Amino acid sequence: MSVQRCPWVDLSKPDYVAYHDEEWGVPVRDDDRTLFEYLVLESAQAGLSWYTILRKRAGYRRAFAQFDPLKVAAFTDSDVDGLLADPGIVRHRQKIEATIANARALLRLQQEEGSFSEFLWRRVEGRPVINKPRTPADYPTRSPLSDGLSADLKKRGFRFLGTTTVYAFLQAVGVVNDHSEECFRQAELAYF
Question: Is 42 marked active-site?
C-alpha cells in the first residue's frame, strides 16, 4: 500500500514531496526566525507557484541574512538595489522592500508582545486548527483567523500580507493543519 499524501503534492518533484512530508504543517513554536522565514517566503510567493519559491529558498536564505530580522531590518536602499540584481530570489522591488519593512515590524511586535510565536499561537489558544479537507476544492484560501491576523499585521506596519498569503503562512507553520483527511501527516500532526 502506498503512502497517501495531500492531493496537491506533485510526486514527480522529490523536493516538493520532502517539503510536504517533513515541513508543511509542522507547528513552529518558539522560533521567530523560522516564522519570519515562512512569512517572507509566503509573501514572495504571491502571484507565483510555491515550487518556484521552494527552489529559490537557498537564495533567499543567503540574500536575507539567514532570515535574521535584526540584520534584515538594517538593510538600506543600496541593499535593495543589490537584491534586485540577485537571480537567486524573485527580483520584485515591492516584495523586497516589504521584507525589510516586515523585519522592522517584527522587531516592534516582539517588543510589544514578547515574541512573534507567542503572538501567533495565542490566536488559536496554543492548538492548531484542524480542517481535514478531502478534495482540492475543500482547501480554504482564507478564514476568519487569516482575515483578522492580516488586518492586525497591516496595522502594525507589515506589508504584502493579504489574507490569502497569511492563510498560506498559517498552513505552512502548522497553526492550521490542512493536511487532507487521507494524508499520512494529518494524524501525525493532529496533536503536535
Answer: yes
